[in-house]
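Consider the following assembly input.
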Amino acid sequence: MMTSAAPVHTPADLADALALRAAHPAAWLLAGGTDIMVYLEAHAIDPPAFIDLWGLPELRGVDSRGDHIRVGACADYTTLIDDPAVRAHLPPLVEAARTVGARQIQNRGTIGGNIANASPAGDTMPVLLALDAVLELQSAARGLRAVPLADFYTGYKRTVMAPDELIAAVRIPKPAKADRLHFRKVGTRLAQSISKVVLGGRLRLDGDTVTEARLGWGSVAATPVRSPKAEAALVGQALSPSTIEAAVAALDGDITPIDDVRSTAGYRVRVAGRILRSWLESLRG
Amino acid sequence: MAGAGTTPDDPYIGRGFVRADGPAKVTGAALYVDDVRPRGCLYGATVRSPVARGRLKGLRRDPDFDWTDVVIATAADVPGENVIALMTDDQPVLAHDELRHVTEPVALVAAPTRDRALAAARHVEVLYEALEPLFDPLKAADNPIRIFGDDNIFSRLEMVHGDGLDGMAQAEAAGARLVRGSYAVGLQEQLYIEPQGMIAQPREDGGLTIFGSMQCPYYIVKALKRVLGHDRLNVVQAVTGGGFGGKEEYPSMVAAHAAVLALKTGRPIKLIYRRDEDLQATTKRHPAFMTYTTAVDPASGRILAADVDLLFDGGAYNTLSPVVLSRAILHALGPYAVPHARLNARMVATHTPPNGAFRGFGAPQVMFAAERHLDRVARAMGFDPVALRRTNLYRDGDVTPSGQRLFDVASLEVLDRALAAAEAPLPPSMVATRPGGGQAAGRRKAGRGLAIAWHGCGFTGNGEAALAGEADVSIDGHHVLIHTASTDIGQGTDSIFPAIVADVLGVDVQRVHNAPHDTADVPDSGPTVASRTAMVVGRVVEQAAHSLLDALRAEAQWPGAEDADFDTLLERRPSDAPLRVRARYEDAGAEWDPETYRGDAYPTYGWSCVVVDVEVDTDTGEVLYRRLVQATDVGKALNPVLAAGQLEGGALQGLGYATSEAVVLDDRGAMRNNRLTNYIIPTALDAPPMETILVEYPFAGGPFGAKGIGEIPHDVPAPAVAAAIEDATGAVLDRLPMTPEAVLDALEARETPAETPGAAR
C-alpha cells in the first residue's frame, strides 16, 4: 500500500519551487518517485509534505556547452540514454543509466534523484565521480553554488545540501579524447538489480604513463566514494603489472564495505580489486 | 455422421489453441481476490510472533492507538478446533501456548480499511517469555529442545533395494570403487506474483463462503470443517496469479484466519498478504543435506550399489513434509538403474517457518545431489560424464528401487535429442543482443553442462486410487460445462480440459468451459498438484465426456441415435431436463505397499535432459546464461505452446534455484531479503534463449497419452548449471544456490598453484 496523507505541492516554475523549498524545509522533493514510492510502501518514511519537481522544464534539459555537458536534475535515465551529446561524450553514463532498474524505472528515475537519494549503491554516482561532475545547488536565499560531487556526501545518506536547497543540474566535464573510460556494475542480476559493487573509471595516459586517474565506487562504503590511494598509486607511473598490483593493493585502504542482505564485505573487497585489475590490464592492450 | 468419441477433422489436442483465460488477463477484466470487495467488507491483518521460540504470555494493545473500530481475534475465538488439518494436527490456526517460529500467527485484527488494519496489527505487542530455539537441522534429531514428538523427526523412511548394503560390500570386494560425496541445497521461495489472499463471507445459513487465491479448494474445505466445527461452507477459487505449490496447503491458514474474523465480526473479511509478509511467513522449498556413496565398476562405469542418506528440514510444523520426503527418497537415485541400494531419509523439525509444497516436491533437491554425484564419479574415475550417464540410464525392463519395472523409457531419446540440438548452432532468430549490465567480456569462460531427470507423474503409490477423483460434465443450453476442483493457476487447466471435451464431443472449443471451481458445485477431483491435473483428472474428464455422449444416446428414443453426433443428439433431446454425468478415476491396478515402499511408486514417469551453456565471469563469480536446451518426454503434448511454456518457465525457475535465489535468514529465522528487490529471481534479461523439444512416449492412462509435465522442468537445470560451471572453470560446486559469492570462493580455491586445470565435459 503506497499511501501517504501528506500534501503534494506542485510549483509552477523553478522560482516557485525554491520558495516552497524554503517555506517547507522538512518536505521531501519528489521527482520520478522511484525511491520514495518504495520507502512509502515499506513505511520507511513519513514526510509532512512533498514538493513535486517532475513538471518543471527548467530542471529537465540536457545541454552540451563547450567543455561540459549540463544535465538538468530531473533528466530521466531514458533521456540520458537517448541524448546524442551524452552518447558521444559520456558513454559510461549511458551504460550506467541502462543498468538502472528496467525500462519503466528508467522512464521515471532522474539523475538528480539518484544523487540526492544518496544511496551508496546508486548506479550513476561512480561514473559521475570519475568524470569530476559538479552539482549546481540552488536556493531562493543564496542563489546558485557549485559543489563537486566528490564533496557532496558527508556520511551515510547525508549530504551538504541545505534544507532550502535543491539540485538544479549536474555539470559534467567532457573527457579528453585520450581519456579511457569505464563502467562496471556487479549486480544481483541483469535487470531490476541493486549493485554489489560499481566502478566508474577514467584514466588519462601519456604514452604508457598515467597522468590522471579517477576511480569512483559504489556499494563499497557508506557513500559513493573515490579511491585516492589507488588513484595515487597509478598517477605518474607506467601502467605496468606492478603498478596495477600496487593500485589494487592500495584500494584496500580506500574502501570500507559491509556485509548486507545483498552480499558480503569480503566479496566486495575481492571483486573491487579484481574488476579494477581487469580493467587496467585491458588498457595495457 | 460422426460416431461415438470421434473428433473433428482438425482436433484441438496437439495444436496450439488459444488459452481460455488469456483475453481476460490481458485486458485486466480477470478478477483476482484483491479486485473484489464485498459490501460491508472489513480488512484483516495478522499479528505474528517476533521470536523463533517463546512461551506466549499475552497481547498488549498500545494505549495510544485508537482502537474504536478495530476487532481483535485470538485463539480463543476459534469456534472449532485450533488446528490446520493436514498430515498431522500439530499446527494451530493461532498460537495459544508455545511460539514455534518467527512470523507464526498469534492474533488477527479487522478494521474498516486496510491501512487501519495494518496499523492496528503493528500496535499489538506479543508478550512472551523467550526460550532457546533450535535452528540447525543437523542437530535436530533427538535434541533435548523438543519441537515435534519425542525426537524432532516428522517422518523417517528407509528403502532397501536388491541386497542393500550387502550389495555394496560384494561390489567392493569384487573391485568396484567407492565414491562418496555430500551435497546441500537451501530454501527456495515459490514467488507466485499474486500474494496470498482470501475473502470470507458469512452466508445466510450461518456458514461461510471462502473466495480466494488457491490451488486446492477441497484442502480448505477439509481444514475449515475442523476450524468451524461444521461443514456449512463452500470454497470458490478466484483467478489465481501463480502457485507453484505455495498455494497448495498455505491458503488453508489464510482462509481459516479470514473465517475466524468473519465469524467474530459478522462481516465479510478480506485478508491479503503484503509481499514482505508473504515472503517471511509462508512456506518454502525444504533445505536438504544429502550424502551419497556409490560402488562403481572401474571398467564399465556401471553403478553397482548405492547408499544414500537424506536429511530434510521441515521447519516448525509438519505440513506436507512426509509426502515431500516420500517423493525425495523415491527419486533419490536419479534416472539410473542401480541393482543394490539402501536409502535412508529423515524429515526433522527446527524453529523456522514451516517448509512445504513447491514444484518438484522433494525431487529437485535429490536430483541435484544425484547428478552432482554422477559428475563426481566421472571426475574421480576418469569417465566422460555423458558416457557415464548413458551407461547407467534406465532402459525398458529395468527395475526401480521400489521394485517397479519400467517400460516405454524415454531416457536415451531425451539425451540424444537434447545433445543433437545443443550441438547445432543457435538458431539465428534466438541470437539476441544483450545490454549485459556493463560487464567486461575479457574475464569470461564458457562452459556446457548436462543433467537428466525422471519424474513420477501423479500421486505416489495408491494415492490416486485412495482419492478416486471425480469430474462432472453437464449440458448448459448449447454449451458444455466441466465441473472439477482442478484449478487453473496459470498452467492452463481452463484451456486443456475444454479442449479434451471438445475433441471427444466433436464441437467447437468455444462451447466448452470449466465451471467456476466452487465446492458447492464441483466434485472433489483432488488437489492441483503433483503433475496430476492434465494426466489424471484430464483422463477422468475425458471419460466424463464419453459418459455424456452415452447418456444422450440412452435418452434418445429414435433410430440411429447410437451413431448420431453430439449436436444432433442435443437438438433432438426429448426434454430440456438438466443433464449432468460423473466419471471417477479408474485404478489401473497399481500395486503399492506403503509400509515397505515396494511396488509401483507412480503410474508413469516423465524423462528430461537439460543442456545449459554458461559464461562464468572469473572476476566476480557471476554466471551468465547463454543457452538452454531441453528435451522432455510429455507423453502427448495436449497443447504444444502451453507445454513448452510450462517447460521453459520451469527451467527458468530452476536457473534461479541454481544461482540467484538465496533466502537469507536473520538470527530469529526470519527472511531478511523479503522483497522482490533482494530475493533474486531471474528476469527476462537473465533468461537464455531456450530450445524445447517435446518428446512423446504416450501413457495409456492419460488423456490422448498425456503425462504430467508441471514439475519435471524444475528438476535438473541446477545440476546442469553446476556441471557447466565446472566445465568452464574447473570449479566444483556441490551446494545450492551457487551465488556469485560461492562461485568466486570456488574459483579462488582453484587459483592455488597446486590445482591443475581441465574440466570434465
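The longest strand of chain A covers residues 197-206. Ask yourself how this observation constrains the way the partners meet.
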